[in-house]
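Review session, final week

We close the course with one last complete record, chosen because it touches almost every idea we covered. It is 4'-phosphopantetheinyl transferase domain-containing protein, a protein from Streptomyces lavendofoliae with 326 residues. Go through it on your own first, then we will talk.
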Amino acid sequence: MTVRIGRPLSVRGPRGPWQPVRDELAHAGTVLVYGTMPDWLPPEGTEAELPRLLGRDWHRYQTFTQPRLRERFTASRLLLRHAAAAILRTAPHLVDLSYQPGGRPYVRGCDQIDVSLSHTEEMMVVGITRMGRVGVDVERADRRLAHTGSETQACTPYEKRRLDAGGEERRNDTMVRLWTLKEAYSKALGQGLRFRFTEFGFALDDTGAWLVRPDGTPAGGSWTFGTFPAGGRYVVSAAVFDAGFGEPVDVAVDTTLDEGLFDALLAAPRPGSGDPAGLLGEADGVDPVAGAQLADDGRQVVADRSLGQVEASGDLGGVGPAGGQA
């Protein structure tokens, strides 16, 4: 199956529509979903439902003291949970969202899908794939990156040459596109190995993006990239790695759960818990990873992180050795 990344789909709240999201995943293997924070905040007077709605993330939510941070955290996690639930055809509160050591989100027990989350201001984006790995990033289209030092700290020599050749009129738009692609790629890699944005690059044209080495030679690898407008004033980029899983069309919960977890899901629920066989863990248990300080995309915050350094690791698609270890 040829990997294709379609335009992000707008979902304005828990009621969806979700069928187009399922259809896009079935057709293309990957789907991007976006929403805004006001549409995804729970109605007033439903605060008592938050522990059930957020699951393991409830403990992380309680560490925030600023109302705005609590709202952004709540809305983004609810969008992610509802999107995954729609794909898996299960209830959102049964989606057991957890985090890898680098802070990368995943759905426990459902290893046939991969998820990614990003947000800026009130805009939130979720990526889901059944192809292998996915990373997403969103930025304002008018974010000023040209002539701010970003080119030196985040661009390869090849990319800087292409920026110069493209002219001043397109320079900032190209920089926003490059930045979001690099963030999306680093999120797809995950795992917390540090490497610099100057150690891998992208060749761009009006139809696509390709991973290249710092000198502009092709890097290869089974990666597909896409950049799209969304929400009127934002840019969304996505990176998808094709792990060669084939073409499974049915990703409902009863086919994607590990066999042991599916057996547990079918078992009788504990009295009064609403949690089949304790699938979601103890109500007051804390995932040690989810308790880490997380950035907008769910990754751990690195103090005084330089502009050109990110948390990521894995197959660089032939780019070569990663940068210095953290």
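Two points worth writing down before the exam:
The first strand starts at residue 9 and ends at 10.
Residues 255-326 have pLDDT under 50 and may be disordered.
Good luck, everyone.
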